[in-house]
Specification:
It is built from ten helices and eleven strands. It is of the alpha/beta class and about 220 residues long.
Length: about 220
């Protein structure tokens, strides 16, 4: 099982051309299955009166600039997918030494923002909507900020992500390099299937395929 799991990964991006070439050189044809879309949420202490933030301001901070009213930006980990996403968006290869902080987990990021006014946290949307019991008291002390970008404002909601309005949305993929029908193939089939997509929807993510809904219309009310 460990060998199977080592050949299956969930990525918050598609494989790059260079990565595909590495697989090709090893005569491996990875099967890539998109199963959901996620949003990167910008969170702040509830004392912040302005519930909308400019995406350009966050990009400027990641580039090392200072923005009035924002003490700093907090990431879960400098090597996490969220940090890599924002660095790519800002066009930088590393985080600046000042104005940007990082921890080890999303829980630590949420807790730090909940305890420090003026900080902006960068976390995956589902970490806020499906928070663990241990950090729920901290989640109650923060709110998710709306983002203004290119003259429009959107929120980190399933609806805005599904309609392509939210600028910090990203696709999630299952990458299976097993090359045979094993646990990896089964997992990819399950998460992309009807039941798996319903689980994705309830988790706060946007499923790649909208689960069907069957409505039964009855003429008479059944009495029990």
């Amino acid at each position: 099982m460990a060998n199977d799991s080592a050949r299956v990964a969930i990525l918050a991006r598609n494989l790059t051309k260079e990565e595909l070439n590495v697989f090709k050189s090893r005569k491996i044809s990875p099967r890539i299955t998109k199963f959901a879309s996620d949003g990167i949420a910008l969170i702040a202490h509830k004392s912040r009166q302005d519930t909308i933030i400019s995406l350009q301001h966050i990009i400027d901070i990641v580039r090392g600039k200072q923005i009035p009213g924002i003490k700093g930006v907090v990431f879960d980990n400098p090597n996490s997918s969220t940090a890599q996403y924002m660095m790519q968006l800002a066009g930088v290869k590393g985080l600046p030494e000042s104005g940007v902080f990082s921890f080890n987990t999303n829980e630590e990021t949420v807790r730090y923002v909940a305890e420090n006014e003026g900080m902006i946290g960068v976390v995956g949307l589902n970490w806020v909507y499906n928070s663990r019991d241990a950090i729920k008291p901290d989640v109650e002390k923060i709110h998710i900020l709306g983002i203004s970008h290119n003259g429009t404002t959107s929120t980190a909601s399933q609806n805005d992500i599904a309609e392509g309005k939210y600028p910090l949305a990203r696709d999630l993929f299952v990458v299976n390099c097993q090359g045979f029908s094993g646990l990896g193939m089964g997992f990819a089939s399950f998460v992309a299937g009807e039941t798996g997509q319903r689980i994705v929807l309830k988790s706060g993510l946007v499923p790649a395929k909208t689960p069907t809904r069957k409505i039964l219309i009855r003429k008479d009310i059944e009495k029990k």
